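Proteins fold reproducibly. Look at a concrete instance:
___
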Amino acid sequence: MAHIIVVGNEKGGAGKSTVSMHVATALARMGHKVGTLDLDLRQKTLGRYIHNRRTFLKDEGLDLPTPDYEDLPEIDQSELKPGENAYDHRLSKAVAGLEPDQDFILIDCPGSHTRLSQVAHSLADTLITPLNDSFIDFDLLAHTDTNGEEITGPSVYSEMVWNARQLRAQAGLAPMDWVVVRNRTGAQAMINKEKMARVIEKLSKRIGFRTAPGFNERVIFRELFSRGLTLLDLRDIGVKGLNISNVAARQELRDLVKALNLPNVTVDF
């Protein structure tokens, strides 16, 4: 059985697709077979990323490890029974098609609540929720008082994850490992950063997730998108003498993959 990684939250701009592409490519470069699905059926940022990668490698005559990517298959409406949802069947069919040949299946969810995203969360062996270090983004997980110190209640997203966990338990599946990844934390020890650390620690114990370090804001991520490359590919395309920012970003990726603690994965980059 492939280990299913779902990258999701219900807010755009948190870095889901950047995390998805880098984690998927890192696993592929470590020798694992990785299949990917993009549930943002309009933008398909992850899908575009992998398309750009395949095109660039072909044009340059390069052969670098690349995750597989599949579009969701169409479903004949006549095959559905009364009350069945076509999106459920599209996702289950896509996962079933990838599973026999993959070690990991990574699913990138849209920054909004959709039926596809809801179902994907129930399939997650590992759920990665990227979060910008901001109380605007934290509101995705829980609501706080006006001082940003005390948690007053869960968010609709946290409740959705709770429901997904319940569905997994009812199906006899192993518990989901939920990892909240803190992106764009910045280097300065600001008051907001300290508050965020405290409230995230409180919430992690309350609703059951782990935290992991994510990516800081770096121009390199945007620059590599058009070629579908990641930080791990730079030396392979002839970039020598990585600058300090690139070295730091590579270390961030290494720390993230280690923190995910995925099965049979030894970080060696």
